[in-house]
Amino acid sequence: MKAVLLVSHGSRITKTKQEVLSLIEKLKNLLGISFIECAFLEIETPSIPDAIAGCINKGATEIIVLLNFLNAGRHVDTDIPRILNEARQQFPNIRIILTKPIGQHWEIPQLFSQIVTPYLIDSDVAK
Q1: Which residues are marked as active site?
Q2: Sheet holding 36-40, edge to edge
Q3: pLDDT tens per residue, range 25-45
């Protein structure tokens, strides 16, 4: 069984976790699947190792780690791959796949364009 694990940085701000949980609900509806969990690199719970173990306990045999990080950096390039490699050693029969950060997706320029366009059109905002 496949699981999606949305990995975010983590924050001390309560609103941030609520935003992640809301995103998960939207993804469940868009993808038509219910096995989507969240994990956090720091500060918030569940941690990535705990969430991976939780997915496996719920029957996951493959975990797609969906990075909720915009760009490459220490966490994306080093910290998260290290954590996932440790999990692969702990659970050798589980396939763990890591996606690219969202900033590398080909539609990000279009999304940013949609976000900024109203500000460019509104003459009061543009000044």
Answers
A1: 9
A2: 36-40, 2-8, 62-67, 95-98
A3: 999 999 999 999 999 999 999
